[in-house]
Amino acid sequence: MERCGLPSGVDDLARHGFLGPDRNPSDLALAEKMGLRREQLVLRTDRHPAQLAAARAGLGIAVARVPVDESDARLVRLLPDFEVDILQTWIVAHENLARVPRVRAAFDSFVESFRIMRRG
Predict the structure, then answer these.
(1) Count of helices and strands (H, E) across the chain
(2) I want to staple 93 with a disulfide (CB 3.0 to 4.6 A). Which of 50, 52, 98, 110 is the partner?
């Protein structure tokens, strides 16, 4: 970021180093959707926490869910109007386990946390 400055728009992203996937097909498809080729990535790892750690260290730009970057003062949200993709999340439990009180409590907590996160 210090070397290239902040990107002013989507077209400006090509000047910046990106952190991204190595072999994960769905993550590679997302990178491709953004116009990035695997060879362009300055760091390739399928571990999202490693990508975020590298972003915190200033090695490049990583894609993160909005609640993640907004809760971490060491990350800067770029291009807030640019939506990379919608991440569908399913919270499921086997019907027999859903009746176990501690599982039900955890399930309900997950659902409420995701509702809060969606509201932003």
Answers:
(1) 4, 2
(2) 98
| pLDDT tens figures, 8-64 | 887 777 778 899 999 999 899 888 888 888 888 999 999 999 999 999 998 999 988
Separation CA 58–CA 64 (nearest Å)? 15
C-alpha to C-alpha distance for 20 and 50, rounded to whole angstroms: 10
DSSP state of 59: S
Q: Tell me the two tokens of residue 56.
A: 């915190």
pTM of the model: 0.70
**Apex CA 67: angle with CA 100 and CA 93, to 5°?**
20
User: How far apart are the C-alpha atoms of 4 and 87, rounded to whole Å?
Assistant: 29
What's the mean pLDDT in 77-100?
85
